């Protein structure tokens, strides 16, 4: 169940459990609770991303045990905060998670109670640069407690091809048989063998561990030529309701020989000499919309994926840009610049995401701001004269070289 469906189902759950039609919002908006949790555990995700009732209950007990809340100036404990509404909200969420878990144990589909889409066996998370697409995948895998051995990552780039994604014959070194070492005069010799790459590694792992989910993660999927990289694997992406490929494909002789050896105890993986994606193999990918001109993805390929947009949330309200002795709000800068980008390009593709930069202690230095943010805006957004960004407060044009002269800080301040 994806996060959107989970929120919708939780809202329905709340409406059934409360007398007031509008009261669900008091229970399903966890922003204040999230701040409390992240003050204690900075690496933790937002509460709504966690589905294990035991894990959430442990967090709940931890908050209840605090005599002083780290984000609150009041003398309230977690149980009394907001008249008890936050304590009640978390307790209700735990009951919801326990109900979902019980239903799954008796083999009843949640879709019977709330309409939702079929499982996303292939999904592309897309959005502007820095919106946290890769981070979201990482969080979801962590939430599901997926072991590292079941996660396979690759990054597409312009030189990626079928052999670097699937595998091919390559020269390797193998030990010389002991009885020939004296004649050969060496311990190793060159031999040619099939060397599997990320796709085949994930494929074989899925067949070897049929009771565990395996995830193939493709970063920057549109930076490579998908037609060239996937080749005839494209057919496998058509899956039935159970997640199994509807149209298996014949493996070439080299790959067939390798899989017959690798999957000798799991013959379904190369049954009749064919490849077929199993239901426990998930393929997730990320795509920066600002890079979509590199290798356009054709509509036939797009149709075989679910797509989920990762929006800009303007959530890092405590980040600041430091120029000289002056400090400016990162989110305020984001809002203003993104409005200018949209006005100039009529598109959200090149907007600045929440995590476009990685500040140190929430401070974006002047050097980082120029070399990362302004360079991107100059080179990718304003290169064709679009936008109205590189101007001072008295409407003078700014050259990029002006940001590196002795008056750079003064120029920057006049732009802000």
Furnish the topology, listing elements before pairings.
Elements: H1 3-17, H2 24-28, H3 31-40, H4 53-64, H5 85-105, E1 122-127, H6 133-143, E2 151-155, H7 162-165, E3 167-175, H8 181-184, E4 188-196, H9 198-208, E5 214-219, H10 226-230, E6 249-250, H11 253-262, E7 274-275, E8 281-288, H12 299-302, E9 306-309, E10 320-323, E11 326-329, H13 330-345, E12 363-364, H14 366-381, H15 408-415
Parallel strand pairs: 1-8, 1-9, 2-5, 5-8, 10-12
Antiparallel strand pairs: 3-4, 6-7, 10-11
Helix pairs in contact: 4-5
Query: Biggest β-sheet, characterized?
Result: 5 strands, parallel
Report the oligomer.
single chain
Give the C-alpha Rg. Answer: 27 Å
Report the β-strand fraction as a percent range.
5-15%
Q: Which structural class do you get from the secondary structure elements?
A: alpha/beta
- The N- and C-terminal alpha carbons lie at a distance of 43 Å
Unreliable spans are: 106-117
- How many E-type strands? 12
Strands of the widest sheet, in order across it, are 2-5-8-1-9
Order of helices and strands: HHHHHEHEHEHEHEHEHEEHEEEHEHH
Rounded mean pLDDT is 82
Helix percentage range:
25-40%
**What count of helical segments does DSSP give?**
15
Shape: globular
Task: Describe this protein's structure.
The chain is α/β, with parallel strands linked by helices. 37% of the residues lie in helices and 15% in strands. It has 15 helices and 12 strands. The protein has helices spanning 3-17, 24-28, 31-40, 53-64, 85-105, 133-143, 162-165, 181-184, 198-208, 226-230, 253-262, 299-302, 330-345, 366-381, 408-415, and strands at residues 122-127, 151-155, 167-175, 188-196, 214-219, 249-250, 274-275, 281-288, 306-309, 320-323, 326-329, 363-364. The strands form 4 sheets. The protein has a 5-stranded parallel β-sheet with strand order 2-5-8-1-9, with helices on both faces. Strand 10 and strand 11 (326-329) form a beta hairpin. Helix 4 (53-64) runs antiparallel to helix 5. It is globular.
């Amino acid at each position: 169940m994806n996060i959107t469906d989970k929120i919708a189902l939780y809202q329905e759950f709340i409406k059934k459990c409360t007398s007031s039609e509008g009261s669900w919002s008091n229970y399903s908006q966890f922003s204040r609770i999230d701040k409390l949790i992240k003050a204690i555990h900075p690496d933790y995700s937002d509460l709504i991303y966690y589905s294990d009732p035991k894990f959430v209950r442990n967090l709940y007990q931890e908050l209840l045990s605090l005599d002083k809340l780290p984000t609150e100036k009041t003398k309230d404990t977690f149980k009394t905060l907001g008249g008890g509404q936050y304590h009640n909200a978390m307790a209700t969420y735990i009951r919801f998670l326990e109900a979902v878990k019980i239903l799954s144990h008796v083999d009843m589909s949640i879709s019977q109670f709330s309409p939702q889409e079929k499982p996303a066996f292939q999904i592309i998370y897309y959005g502007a640069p820095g919106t946290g697409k890769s981070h979201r995948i990482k969080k979801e895998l962590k939430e599901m407690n997926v072991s590292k051995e079941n996660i396979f990552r690759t990054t597409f780039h312009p030189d990626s091809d079928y052999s670097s994604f699937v595998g091919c014959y390559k020269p390797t070194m193998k030990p010389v048989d002991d009885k020939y070492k004296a004649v050969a005069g060496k311990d190793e010799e060159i031999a040619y063998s099939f060397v599997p790459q990320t796709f085949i590694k994930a494929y074989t792992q899925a067949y070897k561990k049929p009771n565990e989910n395996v995830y193939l993660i493709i970063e920057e999927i549109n930076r490579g030529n998908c037609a060239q990289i996937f080749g005839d694997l494209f057919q496998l992406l058509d899956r039935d309701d159970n997640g199994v490929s509807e149209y298996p494909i014949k493996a070439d002789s080299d790959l067939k020989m390798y899989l017959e050896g690798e999957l000798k105890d799991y013959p379904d993986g190369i049954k009749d000499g064919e490849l077929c994606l199993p239901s426990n193999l998930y393929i997730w990918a990320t795509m920066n919309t600002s890079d979509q001109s590199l290798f356009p993805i054709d509509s036939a390929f797009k149709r075989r994926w679910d797509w989920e947009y990762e929006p800009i949330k303007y959530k890092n309200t405590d980040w600041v840009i430091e120029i000289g002795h002056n400090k400016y709000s990162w989110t305020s800068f984001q809002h203003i610049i993104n409005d200018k980008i949209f006005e100039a390009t009529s598109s959200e593709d090149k907007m600045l995401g929440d995590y476009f930069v990685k500040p140190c202690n929430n401070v974006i230095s002047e050097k980082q701001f120029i070399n990362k943010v302004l360079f991107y805006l100059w080179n990718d957004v304003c290169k064709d004269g679009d936008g109205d960004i590189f101007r001072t407060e008295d409407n003078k044009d700014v050259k990029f070289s002006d940001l590196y002269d002795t008056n750079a800080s003064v120029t920057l301040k006049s732009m802000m």
